[in-house]
Write a structure and sequence with these properties.
The chain has 243 residues and is of the alpha+beta class. Helices cover 43% and strands 16% of the residues. It has two domains: 151 residues, Cytochrome Bc1 Complex, Chain D, domain 2 (Orthogonal Bundle); 72 residues, Cytochrome Bc1 Complex, Chain D, domain 2 (Orthogonal Bundle), CATH 1.10.760.10. Bound molecules: heme C (HEC) (2 copies).
Length: 243
């Protein structure tokens, strides 16, 4: 067993029966609390991904699930992009709206942005316990096809909510993210759709940019670092309420 530290996030890589297995107790526990892990595990198993069993805590309840990716002789994951897209929906929402607000909306997101994020997860330029492992299992052609699939879909319809007063910094975001903040080509690359994105996800990812955990865009990292926690929260609340 080797203990790895990657971009500050601690996780273990276990080698069981020739399979590489990563484990992150905190994340898995969070997913489990939201009662998503079992349907997700079933879906992954059906999709041809290999899962180990769920471990038990000394005090008796399930505390961690190990996600295993086949190496070498073990069968490859399902090769149909359709099956993989189905799997994505288990977290990103079957109707485009994730049930867990810390998971981002990806239906209707800018295709160039989706492609870059999946490649960044795959190449370790962006780190996420779940997404890094999933992206590593995708070929470059899967990444392009999946980005085109989600990017070509409509952004999901969302109920109207009252829009708070616009924080002062919002005007500067429009320069790259577009006047409606629905994403645009920018000198820094494809700027993603932000309007209507889940606030808890936005807060998480803006904080991750600010503290260096999300390091796949030096520009966004420095912009977010220069805002206060309260400013980032107000911006996230405003963006999430936009329609
Ligand atoms: C077990 C839940 C889960 C599954 C399954 C899953 N995702 Fe994710 N996805 C997440 C979470 C959580 C994040 C946020 C990670 C982070 O903060 O970096 C995320 C982030 C993303 C992002 C970045 C979005 C953004 O706005 O930056 C993309 C793109 C993405 N996922 C695509 C996919 C695709 C494509 C699949 C299927 C092949 C998939 N995801 C399967 C949970 C999941
Ligand atoms: C100079 C252009 C530029 C400006 C100005 C800018 N952004 Fe960005 N932003 C980008 C680009 C490009 C990305 C994609 C970075 C990547 O590849 O990870 C991005 C990514 C993001 C993300 C990640 C979204 C996701 O789904 O994970 C958030 C949140 C964000 N920007 C918020 C803001 C806010 C808020 C402002 C204004 C305070 C702002 N940006 C100003 C170009 C810009």
């Amino acid at each position: 067993m080797r203990l790895h530290t990657r971009r500050g996030a601690k996780f273990q890589i276990l080698n069981i029966g020739g399979r590489r297995i990563r484990q992150d107790d905190a994340l898995i526990e969070r997913l489990e609390e939201r009662s998503r892990i079992m349907p997700f595990l079933d879906q992954m198993r059906l999709s041809g991904f290999v899962f180990s069993s769920v471990l038990k805590r000394p005090r008796g309840h399930i505390f961690a699930a190990l996600v295993a990716w086949p190496l070498g002789a073990v069968a490859a994951p399902a090769d149909s992009v359709g099956t993989k897209v189905h799997l994505c929906a288990s977290c990103h929402g079957t109707n485009g709206l994730p049930s867990d607000q810390t998971v981002p909306i990806i239906w209707g997101q800018q295709p160039g942005y989706i492609k870059k994020q999946l490649s960044d997860y795959k190449n370790d330029d962006r780190d996420s316990q779940i997404m890094s492992s999933i992206a590593e299992s995708l070929s470059d052609s899967d990444v392009s096809r999946i980005a085109a699939y989600f990017g070509g879909a409509a952004w999901p319809a969302q109920p109207k909510v009252s829009l708070p007063a616009a924080p002062a910094a919002i005007a500067s975001c429009m320069v790259c993210h577009g006047a409606n903040l629905t994403g645009a080509a920018s000198p820094a690359g494809t700027a993603p759709h932000l309007a209507g994105q889940n606030a808890p996800y936005l807060i998480d990812t803006m904080t991750a940019y600010a503290n260096g955990e999300r390091a796949n865009s030096p520009l966004m990292a420095s912009l977010m670092h220069n805002l206060s926690t309260a400013d980032r929260k107000a911006i996230a609340g405003y963006l999430a309420a936009m329609r």
